[in-house]
């Protein structure tokens, strides 16, 4: 009854969190063919539209009470070039606004990296807020850290949430429940230690030899950028951010912390009792709070790390979805749903359909 759609879906971490909270993701859009099999086999009740969103007319998208998703984040990333709206991927953000304006759901959620808050993007951020408001929404946003929402990972992301203006309310982030404790790496992945497999060569999948699905790690050297700081969090700490690249996956906590020898230069401790290795695909998925029955499909580990690193942690998505549920009182009953549906799906005056 609580039908929503997902844009720039990736492998569907955000979708899974909303599904756990009782929403029905009826339609999703993802253009990256390397993700299609993973999405479709793990979200069997969702129709995946594989086209470029720019080629999808709004009338091809089903009616819904909510839109969730985050446009490609590379153009806003602190680690990237920060080209913002001057990058084609940055302009895709406005496709999200186009669909939002045309469909007029009760709410939307848009997620992106913290780099969007960089002062050089202040003008673009103001334009984005204006575009959301002109589409008919009351907007709030906040920089959140996933570790505060039952995710064993330090991961800062900006979350935009809009409620349709005619509802007369804004999302209150202060009502978003945080976890009483921060989960750590031991809780998340300790049971997997010693069962991992190395990739074939550098990154060719060895999945058929894995007793635990996706429990394989990328091999190869470490760049000077990677070695510019410590990459080891210990068992009693949350993980570093899981990034969208295998070469930059954190080091497993079995190894000693790295040793700083000069500014921006660290080395592996030669006295470490256990070797240094990257986290496996499954370990990264655990840290992103994907369940073990969520299987990732790939031939090259590069694609696996990318789709996991780009995902919204499932538990963070779940916490947000629950709060939207509560704040909009979306617990529809079968008896009154049709009447509420007519009210919720109406197009407010002054907004073009």
UniProtKB/TrEMBL annotation:
What are the record keywords, sorted? Methyltransferase, Restriction system, S-adenosyl-L-methionine, Transferase
Q: Pfam families annotated for this entry?
A: DNA_methylase
InterPro entries membership: C5-Methyltransferase, C5_MeTfrase, C5_meth_CS, SAM-dependent_MTases_sf
Does the record bear S-adenosyl-L-methionine in its keywords?
yes
Q: Which residues cross the membrane?
A: none
Name the catalytic site residues.
73
According to its UniProt record, the EC number is 2.1.1.37
Report whether Transferase shows up as a keyword of the record: yes
**Which enzyme type, at the first EC level?**
transferase
Give one GO molecular function term. Answer: DNA (cytosine-5-)-methyltransferase activity
Q: Which GO terms describe its biological process?
A: DNA restriction-modification system; methylation; negative regulation of gene expression via chromosomal CpG island methylation
Fetch the NCBIfam families from UniProt: dcm
Protein family according to the UniProt entry: Belongs to the class I-like SAM-binding methyltransferase superfamily. C5-methyltransferase family.
Q: What is this protein called?
A: DNA (cytosine-5-)-methyltransferase
Q: Which organism is it from?
A: Pseudanabaena cinerea FACHB-1277
